[in-house]
Specification:
With 90 residues, this protein is mostly helical. The protein is 50% helix and 9% strand. It comes from Fluctibacter halophilus.
């Protein structure tokens, strides 16, 4: 059964995530406030960021950087700075 959340990224009601995909308080905030659609968009951006910055996810600094980018993207409407990537205009 799907659940609906008011997605802070998309600013509309949308299908919520099926379960908490990220640990801790931030994970709960994402689960409560971010839609499947916005999460899927973030996953694509995250992959681009990991590749571009050659992030090693075993490194705490890499995880911290990615988490900051994720919060900015999901909750503050910030596009991550990805070299050579131009977001589609709305």
């Amino acid at each position: 059964m799907s659940r609906t959340v008011f997605c802070q990224r998309l600013q509309k009601d949308a299908d919520g995530l099926d379960f908490q995909l990220y640990p801790g308080e931030l994970g709960k905030r994402i689960f409560d406030n971010i839609s499947k659609e916005a999460w899927a968009e973030w996953q694509k951006k995250q992959t681009m960021l990991i590749n571009e910055h050659k992030l090693n996810m075993m490194e705490p600094t890499a995880r911290t950087f990615l988490e900051q980018q994720m919060v900015g993207y999901l909750f503050e409407g910030k596009e991550p700075d990805i070299e050579g990537y131009v977001p589609p205009s709305q």
